[in-house]
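Hi everyone,

Forwarding the result from last night's run.
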Amino acid sequence: MTTNDSQSTHETVYEFVRAYIQEQGFAPSLREIGEGCFIAHSTVVYSLTKLELEGRLMRKPGKARGIVLINAGAHENLTNVHTNVRLK
């Protein structure tokens, strides 16, 4: 996997998570991310780690669906979306 491929994968994962949260009101599971992006579990974990290091999201250790987007869309006026709360 080249640098451009991995950056593309990270962006795909980020966009999937963002769209999922926007639609469902809570974060996807790692399995759902993998299935939705057609990537392996290890690639999901790697991409989430890279996105976390870039400051685009954070994960709550030991928390299922514990992905929190950081400045999740200045264009959407959302900041620090907490994904463990279901929106009505």
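The mean pLDDT is 84.

Cheers,
N.
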